Amino acid sequence: MLTSLLPGAGLVTTRLRRLGVVLLAAVLLALVAVAAFLLLGDPLRNGMMMATDRGVLIGAMLAAGVVGLVWALQIVLANLAHSTRERLQGAKRYLALALAALMVVAVAVPFGRGVQSLWALQGLIGSESVFGGGDGGDHPFTSGKDPWASTERLNVMLLGQDAGADRTGTRPDTIMVASIDTATGQTALFSIPRNLENVEFPDGTVAAETFPDGFDYFGQDQNLINAVWTWAEDRRDLFPNDPEPGLTATQWAVEETLGLEMDYYAMVNLQGFEDLVDALGGVDMVVERRIPIGGGAAEIDGYIEPGQQKLDGFHALWYARSREGSNDFNRMCRQQRMVRAVTEEADPTTLALSIPRLVNATEENIVTDIPVGNLDAFVNLALRVKDGGFTSYPITQDVTFSGDPDFDYLEQWVDASIEDSMTQDAPESVLGETEPGSTAPAETGTAPDEEEQTPGPDEGSASAEDTEDAPSEEPSSDAEASTAEESADPGAGEESSPAPEIEKDPLKSCLPGYEE
Which of 444, 227, 428 minimizes the C-alpha distance to 322? Predict the structure, then answer.
């Protein structure tokens, strides 16, 4: 038993005492090395940096395998040595062997899990299907202590792609941009409504030449920003030698809409988001109201109940994408809240214990153009972002009317939002405080026949994904549209727009306790 906990300890009283002393000395040296690693420098940062080196991971995997094998073998040797010395016979000897076997299994399982995790992680690091950015030669990384010293800001486009069998074409269901201050990690997280109409494109691009007055390919009320992807895929002849015309055109639209040049992108299939949340063990958060599962052209299959909940991947995804009884802008609010909630929940211990499942979910569902050769730089940046925090800036109707956006004002608002994000303290948790309510995992129940969903701004209209991606998230009345347009276009009719106003609590509509 002692040998199982402290290698070599059970051998020092046997004829194998020299081996026992050597093993004890090795354990002591290992403990000193671990203590030095924890006390000298930043162990989390140093550990994460080491985890981006495939050679280090392979070496650690081999070392873990050897250590685990030696640890198990010395348990068996201690058992045999003591059984011989004590002259155990019959049932006593078999009982001792059974106990030794149990201890071997207890040691082998964690070491085997460690080897599995390291193998999976080194495979992910070398995956060109996930990290498609080559060796990073196109980005001016700085050699030395801070690879981002020559980069003031980094803009990353985040796309949630819904390409299921029940969808017509492939369109990004979620469009976000993270604009990161590389020195502090403070991040402005923008959400672009998928029903933003008549988007423009950068000068000199084939899209700008095709649509000089804004995107108008699909006809009235269908020229949404998320339809740009479908147009580009339909017109591959305009994008010779481009394997991803939909991605290219969507990036152009996002850049022109925000007035920001995208440095990198990350695209996750919505099934992948579900798998990622499951791999992390779910998300603990306070659900602000009853969220329908399903709806639109389909029936409501159940609800996510309000109160403290542990959302698994299925329910976390529906929390972020449900449209029934709400509109695109409340949905964007929930998406931003979920992104920030997952970030809060993803602590290093949870990530370490979830590596095999996380790797599997990542390889099957995530694509980026982050260069694998500079992953250490991005890990460094990710740790800064976790410290600096996200500040949310969804483009709502109060910013600009999605049916007739004021792009000049929108660019000014984006600049002002970035400046605002630099003056903010790390945002408070979006998980919500514990309130009376269910403490069990959210379950999919059956909606009572007599209960009707509270009408929302878009009640009665099918969602875009339920009508072959036709837009449906417009204001519910002409009066509402007029009001939204007036509030979004305060400078309409004037020679210059007033200074943009930045909403200080943009996620209030999807936080617990909010009342209309």
Answer: 444
Burial of 481 (0-12, 13-18, 19+ CB in 10 A): middle
Asked, for residue 261, whether it belongs to a domain, the answer is yes
Cα distance between residue 227 and residue 190, in whole Å: 19
- Tokens representing 24 are 């004890």
DSSP reduced 3-state for 137: coil
Q: How does pLDDT run across 458-476, given as a tens digit for each residue?
A: 333 333 344 334 333 333 3
Count of structural domains within the chain: 2
Residue among 81, 92, 73, 85 nearest 4 (CA): 73
pLDDT in tens, 277-336: 888 888 888 888 888 887 666 678 788 888 888 888 889 888 888 877 777 778 888 888
- Strand 264-269 to 153-162 pairing: parallel
Residue 469 token pair: 């991606």
489 and 434 within one domain? yes
In this structure, are 350 and 426 located in the same domain?
A: yes
Report yes or no on 130 lying in a domain. Answer: no
100 within 8 A of 77, measured Cβ to Cβ: no
- Token readout for 299 is 């029936």
Question: Which of 71-80, 137-146, 401-410 is predicted least confidently?
Answer: 137-146
* Together in a domain, 184 and 90: no
Is residue 133, in this structure, part of any structural domain at all?
no
Exposure of 111 by Cβ count < 10 A (0-12 exposed, 13-18 middle, 19+ buried)? middle
Q: Are residues 179 and 285 in the same domain?
A: yes
Q: Are 223 and 197 in contact (CB under 8 A)?
A: yes
pTM as predicted = 0.70
Which residues make beta-bridge pairs with 310?
284
DSSP character at residue 235: T
**Domain shared by 384 and 453, yes or no:** yes
pLDDT digits (tens, 9 = 90+) for 8-25: 888 888 888 898 899 899
Q: Is residue 147 domain-resident?
A: no
The domain containing residue 352 runs over which residues? 153-510
For every residue of 363-381, DSSP letters joined together read HHHEEE---GGGHHHHHHH
The residue with greater pLDDT, 487 or 211, is: 211
